[in-house]
Amino acid sequence: MEIRVCIGSSCHLRGSYDIINLMKSGIEKNNLEDKVNLAAAFCLGKCGDGVSIKIDEQVISGVTAENFNEVFDTYVLSAV
After folding, report:
1. Which terminus of the chain has a lower count of CB atoms within 10 Å, N or C?
2. At 36, is the secondary structure helix, strand, or coil?
3. In what order do the strands lie in the sheet containing 37-41?
4. CA 35, CA 46: separation in Å to the nearest integer?
5. How many CB atoms lie within 10 A of CB 60?
């Protein structure tokens, strides 16, 4: 599984580095290091919607620290 977290200007201002850290923690906590490749990306085209992440070919926007666990459970844990 490939996960990209946008670090473009808009997402950066909305907390993308917090999302990267939460993603790293979630991957480690669930022992997914061998199944998930996490990286940064520039502009995923959803700048007005909040922090965007791309999981394989699906873009999820509006990711926040508050909804991160729901997003992680729905799009990462359920897919691995």
Report:
1. C
2. coil
3. 37-41, 2-6, 51-55, 58-63
4. 26
5. 17
Q: Whole-model pTM?
A: 0.92
Matching residue, tokens 């991160």 = 68
Residue 68, SS3 per DSSP: helix
The domain containing residue 31 runs over which residues? 2-77
Amino acid at 57: E
Per-residue pLDDT tens over the stretch 54-70: 999 999 999 999 999 99
Mean residue pLDDT across the chain: 95
The H or E element spanning position 69 is: helix 68-71
Distance CA(10)–CA(8), nearest Å, equals 6
- Total number of domains in the chain: 1
Strand partners, 54: 4, 59
* Half-sphere exposure (Cβ direction) of 49: Cα atoms closer than 13 Å: 12
For residues 80 and 35, the answer to whether their CB atoms sit within 8 Å is yes
